[in-house]
Amino acid sequence: MFSPNTSALARQGVKDALQIHSENWNEKYLGLPVHVGKSRKKAFAFVKNVISGKVYGWKERLIAKTGKETLVTSVAQAIPTFAMSCFYLTKTFCDELSSLIGNYWWSQQDKEHTTHWIGWNKLTLPKAQGGLGFRDMHAFNVAMLSRQAWRLIQHPYSLCAHILKAKYYPDGRLLEAQSAAGISYAWRSLLHGAQLVREGYIWRIGDGADVNIWTDPWIPRSWSRTVITPRGQCLLQRVSELIDPFSASWDEQLVRDTFWPDDVVHILRIPLREGAQDFMAWQYDTKGAHSVKSAYKLYVQLEKTRKDGGVGASSTIPGNLHSIADDSWKRIWKLPCPRNIQMFTWRLKHESLALRTTVARRGIPIEDTKCLFCSRGEEDGAHLFIKCKLAKEVWRDLALEKERSDL
């Protein structure tokens, strides 16, 4: 019932107030560990064991890639969802889960260790971007926790919010709370979600009394939600000071005198709500509602920005998380053919079939990379299925020469 950090005096006081005469210590409650010690791996080992049991059972059956895709997305990656919504499972542990699922995806019935022709980072991309839509387990974990943090912000008068505020951020906002020694692991986990919320929330202006002009994100702009104008010696502090109290509209002259032109354009476009309070909204949704889906996309985009050398701030994030530059991947999954043919075409476009050039590119010794049928060109996907002399004859026999030439 009590954490190990609770003093005996505090325990007795709570028990007396609630008239509890005896207490039991259960390792789990609703399937989750009651106490998470120093070893996170040990605490959440049950998640990996459940997935392993499923995977080992599937390996005994001959299942096509399309069937494996369903098992991975609908079963294996759904198992840790409840645990991920409450606790931060750590990046290392999530990578172990991903490795376990990846090994199953590329495994064959009679072989345990097989070549992974496509990296896991590509498999986790959306199908419209060349992946299979598998979850990045760590990104999904943080997105789930951000949902819990968002609920505390939107429902500050709930019992849970009252208790956490009284203990961890009594004099401030949840997004201003910092990690400290001695906090519970559940709260430490929520702070990971709160960090993601900081990257995606925006203030919607009512009377402007709660929003700081210089530090809060309130500018509806894709690359920077805060003002880019330096504060300098400006004495203005709150957004309410930029609003004309008589007309309840922006003091246009004051705005133009205070901010740079780009800030001015975006500020004057913000609608004001007379008599309404300022409120937090989620920038990456047209209705301002937070969702795990949009938070997941935001986290993936942030990580991509960091890996590409960006600072990882919201100023480097595109405003549209759903933009797709290349629609060729979409066309593969819309082909009027069986699903296994679509999967084969997807692998062909990725150059991940076990062709001679692909095998040689992966550093596997091979005597010759020439085409097995014509011995002229290099045996890659384009040659074997389109350019090879024998392949051309097949296309002609099927009366599909025009389609072949278009490829």
TrEMBL record:
Residues covered by the Reverse transcriptase zinc-binding domain: 325-395
Q: Which InterPro entries match?
A: RVT-Znf (IPR026960)
Q: Under what name is this protein listed?
A: Reverse transcriptase zinc-binding domain-containing protein
What is the native source organism of this protein?
Aegilops tauschii subsp. strangulata
**What does UniProt list as this organism's lineage?**
Eukaryota, Viridiplantae, Streptophyta, Embryophyta, Tracheophyta
